[in-house]
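queue> pop job 88
queue> type: inverse folding (structure -> sequence)
queue> payload:
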C-alpha cells in the first residue's frame, strides 16, 4: 500500500460544519496517496447522523466524499489490538490510585489503523490524543490543573505507548486548511472590498475550525496568520 493518512472524526466534523469537506479531493490529489477513515469514524460521522435530523446534511456531505473515493474505509480485523492498547493508555495516568480514562475506542482505532496501513500520519483535532503522541507529560500537567490533585504516571505503560506510537505525525484540520489556502483553493473568498482580505480569510477559517472543535489556541491562530502573511509578501 502507498502512502496514506487516517482521519479521526473530529477533523471531518470541523471541516463539514465549515463547508470545507470539498477541499479533501484536491488535497488528496496533491498528496498522491490515500485518505482513510475507520468503520468507527464512519458510524459516528455518517451512520448515526443519518438517523437523526441534526448533522444529517454534514453526514451526506461526508458520504459524498466516500462515494467519490476522496475518503476510503479502512477495513481490518484488529479489534483485539485496539482493546489491548486502549487498556494500556487508560492505565497511564492515576488520580488517588484510580486510572483516568483519556482515550476512547474510535481514537485508538485510528492510531492502530494507521500502523496497519503502513502509515505514520493521522489527522486528529482532539487535544488529548495528540498530546499522547507529541507530549504525554503535558497531559499530566493538564489533569493536575483540571482535577486539582496529584497525578501519578505508570511509566512502563507510557514507554509501551511511546514505542508503539512515538513516530506518528499528527495533523489537525487547521493544517489541512492552511495547505488548501497556500495552494489557492480558497482564493474565491479573497474579497477586494475587504481590507487585508487574505489575512482576514485565513483568520476567519481558522477560527471557524476552532469554534467547531479543533484544539488550537488563539495565539497559534495569530502566529499562523503572521507566518502566512510573511510568506505572501
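queue> result:
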Amino acid at each position: 500500500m502507498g502512502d496514506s493518512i487516517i482521519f479521526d472524526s473530529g477533523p471531518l466534523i470541523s471541516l463539514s460544519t465549515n463547508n470545507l469537506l470539498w477541499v479533501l479531493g484536491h488535497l488528496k490529489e496533491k498528496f498522491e496517496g490515500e485518505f482513510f477513515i475507520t468503520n468507527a469514524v464512519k458510524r459516528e460521522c455518517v451512520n448515526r447522523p443519518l438517523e437523526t435530523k441534526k448533522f444529517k446534511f454534514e453526514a451526506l456531505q461526508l458520504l459524498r466524499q466516500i462515494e467519490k473515493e476522496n475518503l476510503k474505509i479502512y477495513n481490518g480485523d484488529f479489534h483485539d489490538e485496539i482493546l489491548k492498547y486502549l487498556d494500556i493508555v487508560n492505565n497511564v495516568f492515576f488520580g488517588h490510585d484510580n486510572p483516568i480514562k483519556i482515550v476512547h475506542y474510535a481514537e485508538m482505532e485510528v492510531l492502530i489503523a494507521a500502523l496497519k496501513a503502513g502509515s505514520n500520519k493521522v489527522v486528529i483535532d482532539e487535544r488529548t490524543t495528540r498530546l499522547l503522541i507529541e507530549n504525554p507529560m503535558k497531559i499530566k500537567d493538564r489533569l493536575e490543573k483540571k482535577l486539582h490533585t496529584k497525578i501519578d504516571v505508570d511509566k512502563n505503560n507510557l514507554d509501551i505507548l511511546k514505542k508503539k506510537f512515538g513516530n506518528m505525525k499528527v495533523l489537525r484540520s487547521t493544517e489541512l486548511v492552511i495547505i488548501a489556502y497556500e495552494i489557492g483553493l480558497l482564493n474565491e473568498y479573497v474579497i477586494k472590498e475587504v481590507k487585508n482580505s487574505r489575512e482576514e480569510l485565513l483568520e476567519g477559517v481558522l477560527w471557524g475550525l476552532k469554534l467547531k472543535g479543533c484544539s488550537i489556541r488563539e495565539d497559534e491562530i495569530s502566529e499562523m496568520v503572521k507566518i502566512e502573511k510573511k510568506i505572501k509578501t
